[in-house]
Structures are given as structure tokens and as C-alpha cells.
Amino acid sequence: MRTTVSLGDELAAHIDEVRPQDDDSDAEAVREAVRRSRRVSDLEDRVEELETELTMEIAGIEREYEEQIEELQQEIDSVTARKEDLQRQLGAANRRIDSTNELVAAVETDMNYREKKAKAGILQRARWWISGMDDGDDTKDD
What we know:
Elements: H1 9-18, H2 26-119, H3 122-131
């Protein structure tokens, strides 16, 4: 193809900049500018391809990241539920322990009362019958 081209000062200056050798003809300089334009166009296409690939990779990584976050949240929820269940069980066990301790204390008090009563003489029992038995350990055998 043969073409005649008129270039403005800016484009002419650019052709002079891209001229491979100072003694090359204007036609060869324009051909070199066209070749460079093709390489630039190819590079732009490659950049677009890479941007598309990168965008797809980023989207894939984001999906994986969101899935991992969801899995971790489910694990946290499960651990939280287990913790709450264990706290309820611990509370129930503590209440049973408190009840057992109260029963033990009541049994010990009753046993102390019976032992005290069994050791006490007839006069002491009569006094207790009249005035009530004190809880102290100051028993005197009569």
C-alpha cells in the first residue's frame, strides 16, 4: 500500500524522535512509528487480558476468603453454644453442690444434737426440755 501523508509539527517531531537512524528516510520513520503503534496496541491488549485474569483471580480469592470467614463464624457460634451449655451445666452442678452442702450441714447439726442429747444427763435434758437446747458446745455433764 502506498500512502501520502501530511503531518503537523507535533507528529513530525514525534516521527523524528522514533526514527531508528538519523539517515533513515521519512517513509522508513513512518513505518517504524506504525510498527511501534502495533506493538503498543498489542501490549494494551495484553494489559487488558492480564487485568481480566487478575480481576478473576481476585474474585476467586475473595470468594474463598468469604467462605473461610463463614466457616470460622460457624465454628465460633458452635464454640459459643458449647460454652453456654457448659456454663449452664456448671451452674446446675454448683446448685447441686450447694444443696448437698446444706444437707450435710443439716445432718451434722442433727448428729451433733443427738450426740449432745445422748451424752447429757437427765437434769440437762430436763433444762433443755423447759428452755430449749442451745447450739453451743458448752455442755456440762450433770
